[in-house]
TrEMBL record:
Species of origin: Azospirillum oleiclasticum
Keywords assigned: Membrane, Transmembrane, Transmembrane helix
Protein name: Tetratricopeptide repeat protein
InterPro entries: ARM-type_fold, TPR-like_helical_dom_sf
Membrane-crossing residue ranges in chain numbering: 45-65, 77-102
Length: 364
């Protein structure tokens, strides 16, 4: 079976010699008409004759343009000639002739729009890009943060080619931590980088909307399934947190995510991960008391470090400093974690835990 050939994106070609001939004839006629009053004297008769001739030439150009349209020939420069001649006279014809000359010279090296658009996001064939992505998704817990800092460095001091490579990688494997690099691309001084960053942003939004529709349809099929409602709420929460939206849109998505979390928790009250996600979102929205109430049962069951850190923030913002000290003393080892924990967080935990707790752990 013969593969279908894509239609050319270029405008219909042909008739270039005809265009030049008509333009030269028009230039000669317009120049002659423009010279009639100065040569024969500025009288009402000579001015009227020149204007009448100019009107006839303009009408003939429109008829000629319609003829080219019927024959399927290129209408871009002929259309410019038909529009500029009535307004500018001989100057318009000269401008069209120069445009035709430049078009003939530069079209040999021009890239079609379709090829240019595809070049913005080429398939990654280089091993380093693939290795970098594998490092991000399979490395330690904070690997994506380190990668985002590297991406930001490239977007700040890299070459346009390096910046385009980063944007292409970020677009294909987008995470909220990559947003600063994408924003730097939108504000870059190089137009090609800005266009690619804007296209990447639109691509991320398009993929989000498609995923949103799919998850929403899944919830409609089984409204009582907490797993489906949780997936939709997490998707909305993650996109609201990505940093690409305006304030109103971000608030709208977080309210939708909040409602979805509540509905899912009503159907699965024992889901600890769901309680953690809901409490974190409540804290971000400023509902501190409700966030503490939602996450409190997790602390009694022996929570992980992420839950403990968010719960500690709830206690701090509520002014319950004695409870915060008790939490840090009881769970100091878990909250400090390992090498993935930022130094600043470990220092804060040590401060609230007190020297006795730290000394006891060191002795142990």
């Amino acid at each position: 079976m013969t593969p279908a050939v894509e239609p050319s994106e270029a405008a219909p070609d042909g008739g270039g010699a005809e265009l030049v001939a008509v333009a030269m004839l028009t230039l000669a006629t317009e120049a002659t008409l423009a010279a009639v009053p100065p040569v024969s004297g500025w009288t009402p008769v000579t001015v009227a004759a020149a204007l009448a001739g100019h009107f006839v030439v303009s009408a003939l150009l429109v008829i000629w343009l319609r003829s080219r349209w019927r024959r399927g020939l290129d209408l871009r420069l002929p259309g410019l000639l038909a529009v500029s001649t009535p307004v500018l006279g001989p100057a318009g014809v000269v401008a069209v002739l120069f445009s035709a000359l430049f078009h003939a010279v530069f079209r040999r090296h021009a890239t079609g729009f379709h090829d240019w658009y595809l070049s913005l996001f080429p398939e990654s064939e280089t091993a380093p890009a693939q290795e970098l992505f594998e490092l991000i998704v399979s490395g330690r817990e904070q690997a994506h943060v380190a990668a985002s800092e590297s991406f930001t460095d490239v977007m700040t001091v890299g070459t346009p080619v390096q910046k385009q490579a980063v944007i292409a990688l970020v677009s294909r494997h987008f995470r909220p931590a990559f947003t600063p690099a994408l924003k730097l691309g939108l504000a870059d001084s190089d137009p090609s980088v800005r266009v690619q960053a804007a296209t990447a942003t639109a691509r991320v939004e398009h993929e989000f909307n498609e995923r949103w529709l799919a998850l929403d349809e899944s919830v409609r099929e089984d409204p009582e399934d907490p797993v489906r409602r949780t997936a939709l709420a997490r998707h909305l929460d993650a996109y609201a947190f990505c940093g690409l939206l305006d304030t109103n849109r971000e608030a709208e998505l977080r309210e939708k995510a909040l409602a979805g979390y509540h509905q899912a928790l009503d159907r699965a009250p024992g889901d600890g991960t769901l309680r953690h996600d809901l409490g974190r979102l409540l804290l971000r929205l400023g509902h501190v008391e409700e966030a503490e109430r939602i996450m409190a049962p997790l602390i009694a069951d022996g929570a992980e470090r992420g839950v403990l850190v968010w719960y500690a923030e709830c206690l701090f913002r509520l002014g319950r400093f004695d409870d915060l000290r008790g939490l840090c003393r009881t769970h100091a080892a878990v909250m400090r974690g390992g090498a993935a924990t930022p130094d600043a967080l470990g220092s804060v935990v040590n401060l609230w835990a007190g020297g006795d707790a730290v000394a006891m752990e060191s002795a142990a």
